[in-house]
Amino acid sequence: MRLSHFPRMAAGGMITALTIAGVGALTATPAYAAMAEVSAVHGIPNTPVDVYVNGEKTLENFAPGAVAGPMNLEEGAYDIALTKPGEPLANAILKVDDKDVLGGTNISIVAHLDANAQPKITSFANDTSKVDAGKARLIARHTAAAPAVDMRADGTPLFESLTHSAEAKADVIAGTVMADAVLAGTGTVVIGPADLELAEGTATILYAIGSADAGNLQAVAQTITGLHSAPAGVPSGDGGLAGTGAHTWWYLLAGAGILLLIGGGTRVATDRVYRR
């Protein structure tokens, strides 16, 4: 399936869609608590969802192909559930209990299809290390119900034989490339092509989502900014929020509620969120 463009959401672009839930048990965040930066990616086609965290609705009508976050979350265990919009928690279509979130990490949680086209949650640890001047980081993640693919930049394979739930990354020259994905070892295009801007000092994460059998494969892009190696860089991974006081917002909201983002790709099992 060819797409005219890759949907791109800078991490932080969905903040206005969040619901502030008054969850007193989650807001007692001491200043010394280890924090994690968490983004959400929704990769289950045709399935908008409400997101519940510890029994409270925290995100409403989260649309497929959207990216939300990042937000700073205290290290701990969380119960996560996805429902159809407006449906009660008891009717959850996907649920994970006691999901561990490790402090000091930057992660993306992705709701997507497994290799058999069943919904699941997978988490990925994001590399927010600095990149050299003039460079950008490109990360590809296969979270679609589809065979192995090669990801190409300007027609040349950059990541080859990427299988389901796998990822690959490289630091490349910043600029605009024509990106697409083909069935591994072939020239059969299954996603794209589309122009992809790789800005200096950023990490661009491409997620293959959807189902090959259903003919709705597409790519969703998440951007993490502030990875410049120059002294002026701020390697926070806040996706554009570094200069707006996201950390301060968290503490101001501590007495009123919690902004929590959970959407697509991490494991349904209650394994640990941090993985490399």
UniProtKB/TrEMBL annotation:
<keyword id="KW-1133">Transmembrane helix</keyword>
<keyword id="KW-0472">Membrane</keyword>
<keyword id="KW-0449">Lipoprotein</keyword>
<feature type="signal peptide">
    <location>
        <begin position="1"/>
        <end position="33"/>
    </location>
</feature>
<keyword id="KW-0812">Transmembrane</keyword>
<dbReference type="InterPro" id="IPR025510">
    <property type="entry name" value="DUF4397"/>
</dbReference>
<feature type="domain" description="DUF4397">
    <location>
        <begin position="36"/>
        <end position="151"/>
    </location>
</feature>
<dbReference type="Pfam" id="PF14344">
    <property type="entry name" value="DUF4397"/>
</dbReference>
<keyword id="KW-0732">Signal</keyword>
<protein>
    <submittedName>
        <fullName>Lipoprotein</fullName>
    </submittedName>
</protein>
<feature type="transmembrane region" description="Helical">
    <location>
        <begin position="249"/>
        <end position="270"/>
    </location>
</feature>
